Amino acid sequence: MQKITLLALFLSAPATAQELSSDRPDFSWSTQTVAPSDLILEAGLAYDLSQSSITLPQLLVRTGITDSLEFRITAPDISLQDQESAFGAASVGVKYATEVNEQIRIGLLPSIALPVTGEDRELSGIQSGLAFLWSLDTDTSVGIYGSLGTQARGIGGESGELSFEHFASMTLGWSVNDSISLFAEGYSLIGESTDIYADAGIIYLLKPTLQLDFYGGVPIADPSAAWIGFGISTFVDG
């Protein structure tokens, strides 16, 4: 999920010659990794317009292991609605990405997620996922990237039943200038039902190590269930 770097990095520079290559706020993941010993922190807030609920902090911490491999840890989200709160799952994973040629990059992102409350862990079990990532450099101010993968839920859960959800996404990014980038995206989640979503947003690079994003999205089948959000990403040189 990289935005302002869609031009500064995604279209030209190698993965290690980076300052800030964020994986938010869209559904797709970028094919850039964090350089060894460097750190990228990403966080944000989303507001569900139909349920009047807030989800935060959307905290993702990424650090480089090698030139092509990064370690990732996600803090559990908190959803707030009508003075009630619910906690999501914490997750860990790694992203491996490599260059096929001057225009194409690919990657893999395996991850494991675990609910933070004991009751949820017993009922839901562990969630495991694997995503294939791709990106295409069009040699213009426009870039295309996306992901394809699957995730299993209920591993070790109380019911003993596994469920699977598959997903696919494609994102189109456009650099307006050196500081502003736009994106539009479509993605689908396929499980017991098939749900299709669309989102779009704007990314503003305040400085090479600090990025803001503003976005919104909607389920195609139920436009009233739209959401909006904003976030921040920062780069720490190791």
Write the layout of secondary structure elements.
Layout: H1 5-8, E1 39-48, E2 53-56, E3 60-64, E4 69-74, E5 78-81, E6 84-87, E7 89-99, E8 104-115, H2 118-124, E9 126-137, E10 142-155, E11 163-175, E12 180-190, E13 194-207, E14 210-219, E15 227-236
Antiparallel strand pairs: 1-2, 1-3, 1-15, 2-5, 3-4, 4-7, 5-6, 7-8, 8-9, 9-10, 10-11, 11-12, 12-13, 13-14, 14-15
Tell me about this structure.
The chain has two helices and 15 strands. It has helices spanning 5-8, 118-124; strands at 39-48, 53-56, 60-64, 69-74, 78-81, 84-87, 89-99, 104-115, 126-137, 142-155, 163-175, 180-190, 194-207, 210-219, 227-236. Helix content is 5%, strand content 59%. Mean pLDDT is 88; it is low at 1-17. The protein is mainly beta and 238 residues long. It has a twelve-stranded antiparallel β-barrel with strand order 1-3-4-7-8-9-10-11-12-13-14-15. It has a single domain, classed as monomeric porin ompg (Porin, Beta Barrel).
Question: CATH topology, which one?
Answer: Porin
Extended strand count: 15
Describe the largest sheet.
12 strands, antiparallel, barrel
Please write the CATH class name: Mainly Beta
CATH superfamily: monomeric porin ompg
Individual helix count: 2
Structural class: mainly beta
Q: Spans with pLDDT under 50 lasting ≥5 residues?
A: 1-17
Domains (count) = 1
Q: Can I get a quick summary?
A:
The chain has 238 residues and is mainly beta. 5% of the residues lie in helices and 59% in strands.
